[in-house]
Amino acid sequence: MLLAVGEHTMGELPAVCQRMSTGFSGGLGLTHQEVCGALSGGVLVIGALLGRLEVEEDDRAATNLAALFRCRFLAQFGETKCEPLRARVRAPHGLGSCAALVEESARLLLTLFQEARELGHRMGLEVK
User: Partner of 6 for a Cys bridge, out of 2, 77, 86, 90, CB 3.0 to 4.6 A?
Assistant: First the structure.
């Protein structure tokens, strides 16, 4: 997610960004016990684009979009946790692989960014 959507929205990212996100794969360190890496990666991209740099900065744009991304992810895939998602992906008539889930998640996130830009434009706000 960080590479696919991050580089699409922000251009080439420093290698350290890829390194930083590595541990999120497989539900945190390939344990399959925590949140899906595609969801975590999407939240990283949201933070990179809209997150704050100072504690005094308003972080509502990032947190609201992250919450909306989570809600839409849950609505689309029925889960946010790695292990149940893996079972669904690999089930008959499932997506087949986690790579396909990441691709669908990337489309979902890009759609959210487009909606946010359109809404911001109508409200006279700049959304990256």
Answer: 2
Asked if residue 47 is part of any domain, the answer here is: yes
With cut-offs at 50, 70 and 90, classify the pLDDT of residue 39: very high
Inter-helix orientation angle 37-50/60-77, to 10°: 160
Residue 53 covered by a domain: yes
How many distinct structural domains can be found in the chain? 1
Does residue 128 belong to any structural domain of this protein? Answer: no
Domain assignment of residue 104, yes or no: yes
**pTM of the predicted protein model:** 0.87
Per-residue b or e along 46-64, where b marks 16 or more CB atoms closer than 10 Å to that residue's CB: bebbbbeeeeeeeeebbbe
- 79 with 34: CB under 8 angstroms? no
Q: How deeply is 7 buried, as exposed, middle or buried, from its count of CB atoms within 10 A (0-12, 13-18, 19+)? A: middle
- The boundaries of the domain holding residue 77 are 2-123
Give the pair of three-digit tokens for residue 67.
């919450």
Evaluate whether 79 touches 88 at the Cβ level (below 8 Å).
yes
Q: How far apart are CA 128 and CA 121, in angstroms?
A: 11
